[in-house]
Each structure stands twice: as C-alpha cells, then as structure tokens.
Amino acid sequence: MRKHFYYGWGGFSYNLKKNNCLNVIMNKMNKWIIFGVVIVVVAILAFRPLQLFYKYYLTPCAADGPEKQDDFEMHLEEINLESYYESLEQFDDEFNVQVINEVTYKDKTYPIYQIDSVNESSQNRLLLFAVTHGNEFASALVIPKLLREIGENEVYQSWDVRIVTPVNPVGLDYQSRYNENGCDINRDFKDFQTLGAQIQRDAIQEFNPDIIISLHEGPQKGFFAISTASVSRELESSILSELQKKEVQMASKSFLGLPLTKDGLMHEGFIITTAKKIFGIHTLGSYGELQGVGVITTESSWFDTDAQNRIKPHMIVVETVVNEYGKIAP
Question: What is the DSSP string of 161-185?
Fold first, then answer.
C-alpha cells in the first residue's frame, strides 16, 4: 500500500512539474505574442506618417511633373492665371511691379513677379514669398489684398516690402505642390536646382531683409506659424496673441500628428534644426538661418472651404510683424 502510494505521489508530482513547465512556456509565448501584436499595431500606425515624412521631407523631386496630390483631402479653388497677373499689375501706379523671370512649360510662358513698395522713411525690410506650392491657392489670393492694405495702412510706411509671387507659377496653374519638373521648391535650398529656389536665394541676397515671411497651407486642422530660431519669442507671442484676438482656429498638431510647440506655433529650435541637418532637409527656413535672417512660415488649413478664412490669418501675421518687429527687434 505504501509503495503504491509513493509511486502515485511521484506521478502526481511529475505531472504537476510538467504542468508548471507548460504554464511557464505558455506564459512566455503569450508575452511574445502580445509583444508581436503591439509591434505590428505600432508599425501600422506609424507606417503612414513615416511614408509621408519620406515623401514630403526626404524626396525633393517626388513627382513626374506638376502632379496633383492624392495623399490628403483638400479644398481647391482654380485660379485663372491671367486674371491673377492682372490683379498684380493694377498696382503698378503705387508699387514697382515687374516680371523678374519666366518659366516655359508645354509651350506656355509663366511670369514670376516682383513687387516693391519703396518708402523714403523706411527703417526695416520685409521679404515675402507666395505660392511656393501651387496647390496652396490662398497664398496667392493674399497678395492683392495685402497690396491694398500696404497702400492704405500707415504702419507700412516705415517698411520696404518686397513680394515675389507666384514662386511656382506652373504649380499654380496645375494645382500642384510641385513645379514643372516634379520638384518641391522648398526642399531645394542646398543645391538650388529649381528656378523657384534660385529666385528666393537671389532675393534674400539682393534685398537683405530684416525678416522673411513665406505663405503656405497644409493638411492640418487649423492655422499655425513656423518660426526659425532667429525669430524672437516676443514676436511669436505677439503673433499668437493677435491670432487669438481675431478668433483664428489654431492647430495643435502638424499634419504628421506631431504636437506643436504651442497651439498655433512651431518654433524651430535646437532639436528641430538639428534633425533637419541630420536628415538633410533644406528649406527656406534653413537657408534664412544660415544667412542670419529669421523666417516665419504661415500655414492655413486646406480643409477650410471658405477662402477668406484661409486668407485672414496670413494677413494677421504680416500686419503683426510690421507692427511689432521694430519694437522688440534688437
């Protein structure tokens, strides 16, 4: 009896140990399965942002000519180029309006305009670029309205303002981010292979501005401004304050889903500047910093179907810069 009991207990003990080993193995397998599932989920969630980052930041010429974007929903409005050029030329009595270059694409000629306000009592210089990306149509529509404002508002009398538009006329005609060669002009500030980048570089060197504003739009919810390291924090605060007063909807994230420095503002400090150098992202902002000039890039939302709502925040930023820069600039 005792022998039988002994062997019975031993068998039970053996089965118990076997079951414990199986449980340990199953627990480890479950952990690896859970870990694997988490990795897959994270990869799926990260795939689109990484894909967009590669396309829009690391690939200067990602298209075959002036192709339309299909990565995002956007509200586009067609702009008649002839009418747009006429809207610029009507200010010829008040400003120095001239064609500084031309692009020929498919047997059609596309002028690029430079518009200068000259004030004898000017103390500062503002350089403004519009339509670097042709599908950001509000950046084009800002200019005639801004020219009227410059002519009527006394605050601009202390400034020389130079406007270059459209930087990417073929893109504007085809409603494309890209130029006639399928290149993103705002990724070409190292080699300067595109005419649009060359024109901006030459304008900076010739005009010697105190500050640069570049008008853009993007697929984020709300408006925000990108300021480079040379732009003072006081000026950033003034811009945000005016936007809030005028009840402009502010973005809290970029189109990649990354949080902004503040609602309505991305400050390109040390971390972002270093990351751009590491990844080889050569933008107007990067070039401006190398020249010792602060750059403010304005970004209204593609999703807004009201063109005036998209124009409004750009106007607020320009007016705030003109009002506040001299008070806080060193």
Answer: EEEEE-SSHHHHHHT-SS-TTS--G
